[in-house]
Amino acid sequence: MIADFTPETVTCDALAALAERDLSDLPIIDPATRIGPCVGAARNFYAVGLNYARHARETNNPEPKEPVLFSKSTSSICGPNDPIILPRG
Asked: Residues 50-65: what's their mean pLDDT?
């Protein structure tokens, strides 16, 4: 398996080998186990905002003609079940 997702381990060959792996022999993880972010030591975090027509409608904004790109603090990267911490203010 892959110990960590890094530029060296997330290659086409590594992902192809992972896709061929029989996952039925992997252990069941205790539901209380915290699953952390799938990336570590990120230097930059870039995102695309309002990239779906539905999201634009939900936020009462016009659908952008081009993708809206922005950066976020890497401290905002969290695991799938982690609480989202909102800053004061």
From this structure: 83
Q: Is the pTM of this model over 0.90?
A: no
Residue 34 has pLDDT above 90, yes or no: yes
- SS3 state of residue 48: strand
CA distances 18 to 69, 73, 76, 89, Å, are 31, 30, 28, 44
- Is the separation of the CB atoms in 2 and 19 below 8 Å? no
DSSP state of 86: P
Q: Within 10 Å of residue 40's Cβ, how many Cβ atoms?
A: 10
Q: Which amino acid is at 63?
A: E
Total count of residues recorded for the chain: 89
